[in-house]
Amino acid sequence: MKMLFTLIKLQLNINFGISALKYRFRKEKTRLWEPVLVGLGIFVGIGSITLMMTMLMLGIFIAGKSVNHPEMVLTIAFVGGPFVVLIFGLFYIISAFYFSKDMDILIPLPLKPHEILGSKLAVVMVNEYLTLIPVIIPAILVYGIGTGQGFIYWLKSLILLVLSPVIPLAIGALIVVVLMRLINVRKSKDFFAVVGGFLSLLFGLGINFFAQRIPKGHEAEFFKQYLGQAGLIEHLGQKYPPSIWATYGLSLHNMKGNLDFLLYIAVSALLLLALVWIGNRFFYASILSGQEVTRKRRVLSADEMERSYRKESSPLMALLSREWKLLLRTPVYALNGLAGIIIGPFMVIMMFTAQREQREELFKLINNPEYIVPVSLGGLAFMLFTSGMNIVASTSISREGKSFWISKMIPAAASQQVMAKFLNSFLISAFGTIITGIVLVGFLNFAIWRTLVLIGIGLLGAGLIVCLNLMIDVLRPKLEWTNPQEAVKQNLNGFLGVLVSLLVIGILTGVSVAFIITKLPEWIIYLLLALIIAVLLIPSLWGLIKLSEWKYKNIEV
Predict the structure, then answer these.
(1) Which of 73, 124, 153, 397 matches a 20 to 30 Å C-alpha distance to 243?
(2) Quick one: which of 358, 420, 370, 414 has its CA closest to 552?
(3) Same structural domain, 157 and 260
């Protein structure tokens, strides 16, 4: 048990970079702004989501109270939170258990399988609290304050909040360990992880869409009509019985409530014991089976070999192909890199599928000739927003990690390598920009000629945003990481890139407002915006090339 806690402490230290933060606070005081900025970003992000969920849970509580079931807010929270943890955590578990670089170091050590498994699961669990806090805490607060609960309720709530990720993550870990032992998933892991990640993203966006469909000011009537009364708690929790135990354990202050509370704790403990038992028997075997590879036995003919060896490409195209492979072969890179091209168009679709009254007002605004220019520039802002959510550029060098030495050794100039990274990220942003334009035409009836003009300006803006984001990663790449997730999810460069993107959008918005106030003709506004972006883009590209030629020589791996 002592070794397990030592491993957990070590894994948490590595995951959150605690030692690096301590060193920075003591030795590198000029960089103290970085962790402060990260903390502020996390606080704002989680705070905004928590505020939105609090309003949603308040509506559910009011609806439940009207049908004498205020506790249904707890059921929904203890169903929704663990379900999201199971979906997202499943791929996190695969990454942490089987594809972390430190597994090659840990396995030869005199450690038991369940100790490595338990330490990895603890790290995943701590990270998943960031998912659960915005969902479960608002429900606990709304119900506890709304019904005037006492000390015992708040104590039970704290215990259940701590245990809430245990059941879904233990189930996910059991599935992963057994599946990896029976099937060599490694050959198709990239495909399944990317597809599953995008399904999870669509699921999250679907929840947001459902929340948008709730009539403002009439939440109680909506939930009352949607859920009904008969067997309400059982109906909500039938797919996930622990949510019923948690609900009754908190809402009932009698023998049944206490038994359900203890049952939740007991099932959590039993699942962890089952994971320990299965882990000791299958974990190492599943890792070794996943490392097995099969040799392709197809023999090439003389003509095929000649065509293969004669195939040539320019250095830039070869480097671009390398960038695509690096991005798409690692699921966490592909998911985080391509997610931005989904969010922008989806926001436009949500506007179209808003409530009927809001949709009619939106179409009146779009079809009003007096507002056509501001609305069109709003569409351009959506295109640039889609580009700004692309973190491929701001993590392009960081994703190479310790293999960056290869980039320093290959016979290709730094400027060529950086231009390949620029094109890789720009193509993704361009695809998102074009998709957003298509959505504007299909759902909001934008004129085709106007949309083409906006796409052209958007592509220029995407180039500028990509260039600035790439500069950030060239200046301060994060090459020290043990898990691929650290290169994108725990990389300050991605956050800084989003801030720079929003700054560019804000500046262009201010310039556009000034043009509209001065009542310039529409085509003049578009032309001036294109010229302004082009004037900023050209020196930015030149600066990126010069910066890469200087910085590549000084980056140490």
Answers:
(1) 124
(2) 414
(3) yes
Q: What would the pLDDT profile of 159-176 be if each residue is shown by its tens digit?
A: 999 998 888 888 888 877
- Higher-scoring residue by pLDDT: 368, 206: 368
31: tokens are 């960089």
Q: Are residues 451 and 513 in the same domain?
A: yes
Task: Kindly report, residue by residue over 490-539, the tens digit of the pLDDT.
Answer: 788 888 888 888 899 989 999 998 988 888 888 899 999 999 999 999 99
Residue 268: CB partners within 8 Å, gap ≥ 6? 163, 166, 167, 170
Does 8 reside within a domain?
A: yes
Q: How confident is the model at residue 154 (pLDDT cuts 50, 70, 90)?
A: very high
- The verdict on residue 429 lying in a domain is yes
Domains of the chain: total: 2
Q: Is the pLDDT of residue 229 over 50?
A: no
Amino acid identity, position 52: M
Mean per-residue pLDDT for 321-325? Answer: 87
Contact 336, 488 (CB under 8 A): yes
Instruction: Quote the CA–CA distance of 289 and 410 in Å, as a whole number.
Output: 33
Whether 140 contacts 61, CB under 8 Å: no
User: Distance (Å, rounded) from C-alpha 438 to C-alpha 345?
Assistant: 9
Residue 396 domain boundaries: 315-554
97 and 58 within one domain: yes
Whether residue 380 sits in one domain with residue 526: yes
What pTM was estimated for this model as a whole? 0.60
Over residues 384-412, mean pLDDT: 85
**CA 100 to mean position of chain CA atoms:** 19
Q: Is 150 exposed, middle or buried (0-12, 13-18, 19+ CB in 10 A)?
A: exposed
Rounded to whole angstroms, the Cα distance separating 311 from 492 reads 40
